[in-house]
Specification:
By secondary structure, the chain is α+β, with helices and mostly antiparallel strands. The chain has two domains: 102 residues, Diaminopimelate Epimerase, Chain A, domain 1; 92 residues, Diaminopimelate Epimerase, Chain A, domain 1 (Roll). Helix content is 18%, strand content 40%. Strands 1, 2, 3, 4, 5, 6, 7, 8, 9, 10, 11, 12, 13 and 14 form a 14-stranded mixed β-sheet that branches. The longest helix has 11 residues.
Length: 214
Amino acid sequence: MTDYDVLRVFCGPNGGYGNELGVVREGSVLPERADRQELARKLGFSETVFVDDPERGVIDIYTPTLRLPFAGYPCVGAAWLLDVPELVTPAGIVGARQDGEFSWIEARAEWAPPRVLRQYATAAEVEALDVPGPGEWIYAWAWEDEAAGRVRARAFPGRDDGIEEDEATGAAALLLTHRLGRALNIIQGRGSQLLTAPQPHGWIEVGGRVRLER
């Protein structure tokens, strides 16, 4: 089996929760897309990152079933692991910075895959939702405290690859921030935390805590 690291991205304040991310630091060992896709399928993470140039921050991102030009939590995790000022993805150049316990990326909403952003009246309604079957990729959310920008969210990929709920989803947070036009403090899934902040000229920052699992 190819060597890889496991990170936990968008952890809660106590270091728990977050979404597991596989990172193959030596992407050159699997240069072919088909081989990368097969490894991503075997590992079974929501996303797996292959690092093609650690100094320049060139990365390649896969779900268990497809290659992605951009994804939020893989970029936050890779930025933390590589400690570089930017990442090079097929979608474009992703800015990166470290700020205390948080790792941040700067990206554009149009890079994110389509998501259905479905608002509910209360956080309790979001927490009570059953996992839907395969279909649309749904980001269910509600205000916990609108004045403070606090959001409760859950993500349902609607895929048939065994991932019924995504614990922490940077791309969806990017889209929600773009729609609302304001900074957000999102608690997603069981307790993951994502922070966002609109920037000039259509850029949006997404940040969170990252831990090395193994």
